[in-house]
Specification:
By secondary structure, the chain is low in regular secondary structure. The chain has a domain of about 40 residues. About 15% of the residues lie in helices and about 0% in strands. The longest helix has 10 residues. It is elongated, with a radius of gyration of 16 Å. The N terminus is likely disordered. This is GTPase activator.
Length: about 70
């Protein structure tokens, strides 16, 4: 899996400018998810739910989407 968030050309995968995202975050006091991601959006902390604890209702192995 490609770990890079920014695509060639300077835009994120969803077409947003990463500089504009960072500027918006800073205007509101910093990252929208402090302690979970760095200023580029890469994870810096472990997920809040352990792997052995289901985060969605359903049987083990299901992803909760019903598909």
């Amino acid at each position: 899996m490609d770990e890079r968030r920014d695509e060639p050309g300077g835009l994120t995968r969803d077409g947003r400018d990463p500089r504009a995202i960072r500027e918006a975050e800073e205007a509101h006091g910093g990252s929208m998810a402090p302690g979970l991601v760095d200023d580029t959006g890469h994870p810096v902390a472990e997920p809040p739910v352990p792997d052995n604890e289901p985060s969605a209702l359903g049987r083990p192995g299901e992803d909760g989407t019903g598909s």
